Amino acid sequence: MKQNNTRTRMAAVLLGAVLAGSLLLTGCMAPTTAGSPHKVALVVKSSETQFFLSMFAGAEAAATEYNIDLTITAPDSEEDYEAQNLLVEQAVSDGAEVIVFSATDYENTASAIDAAAQKGIGIIAIDSDVDSKEVATYIGTDNYAAGCMAAQAALERAQGQLNVGIINYGLNSANGQERERGARDTLEQSGRAQVVQVVHTKAEAQAAKADTLALLQEHPEINVLLAFNEPTSVGAAEAVRELDAADTVFLVGFDTNVETVDDLQTGEVDALIVQNPYAMGYLGVESAYKWLTGRAGELEPTVDTATRIVDRENLFAMDSQKALFAFN
């Protein structure tokens, strides 16, 4: 096992990327619009991960550019759809004209979104879709394709028969279920892989670690793990490290985090499926501005913000660095 001595360096790289992105945005920003700012509420699933912090940076950049009065809220738990519904109701009460929304639960948040739309509020979905016909546009990852990509990353990089354990999050998350479906289809079509077990855990690193440890101890034949978001990827990598299993378990994670990028270098993580939350936040607020200024007809039903595979071979390539630290 290689020494885990690069976390401070990776944190410094991340901070540098944030500052560089901020300078670039300041240097090329379009003039803000005149008049009183429109009110937009960004209501998301969490505020605790690098994924959402990057999304907030994008949203705030667009809010500055388009003179938007932006509020950002999230429930304490990524699984708490009832709390998120209350946040939607609060946004309505506070006078939001558009809600940019990332759903904790595809079905159980729909009623709150529908109620907001019935009051004339625009709805922009980003990252995680909601079961509502009132959504003007969905901006985010093609999650089925991302699941296929995760499975393909393992198939192309790991040899022999693959015995796969899947570490997924909420059962009612449209994202997680689509990723799982894509991965399953790709693995099945390969003819040399089987899914041994799927674990649905909380979107928290410690819960994911505990559940991954239990899975690997119950099924020692598992030689591939797929983890489908940032907290589950961090937890799965910690489990692989604790079991000293980096040489026997091939781990494909999701998203970018200082820990998982470090783990990619030291071997606990073998590939990352990297999304672009900065673009989701920026385009979400930009789309809200278009909706508010009579340009809703310009909005596409779906906008794919692109996803890529990063592994040890391409980690330091410029395109990979841009994906890992997508602040501009």
Structural notes for this entry:
With 328 residues, the chain is α/β, with parallel strands linked by helices. The chain folds into two domains: 30-141 and 276-307, Response regulator (Rossmann fold, 3-Layer(aba) Sandwich), CATH 3.40.50; 143-274, Rossmann fold (3-Layer(aba) Sandwich). It has helices at 7-28, 50-65, 81-93, 110-118, 143-157, 174-190, 205-218, 230-242, 258-266, 277-292, 318-324, and strands at residues 38-43, 68-73, 98-101, 122-126, 135-140, 162-168, 193-200, 224-227, 250-254, 271-274, 302-304, 308-311. A six-stranded parallel sheet has the order 2-1-3-4-5-11, sandwiched between helices. Strand 9 (250-254), helix 9 (258-266) and strand 10 form a beta-alpha-beta unit. The longest helix has 22 residues, at 7-28. The model is unreliable at 1-33 (pLDDT under 50).
Keywords:
328 residues; Rossmann fold; 2 domains; six-stranded parallel sheet; six-stranded mixed sheet; 11 helices; elongated
Structural domain count: 2
Major sheet, described briefly?
Answer: 6 strands, parallel
The class by helix and strand makeup works out as alpha/beta
SSE order, one letter for each helix or strand: HEHEHEHEEHEHEHEHEHEHEEH
CATH class of the largest domain equals Alpha Beta
Distance between the termini: 35 Å
Tell how many strands the DSSP assignment holds.
12
Shape: elongated
Number of helices: 11
How big a fraction of the residues is strand? 15-25%
The amount of helix comes to 40-55%
Going by CATH, what is the homologous superfamily of the largest domain? Answer: Response regulator
| Strands side by side in the biggest sheet | 2-1-3-4-5-11
| Rg, Cα atoms, Å | 20 Å
Q: Please, what is the average pLDDT?
A: 89
Annotated CATH topology of the largest domain: Rossmann fold
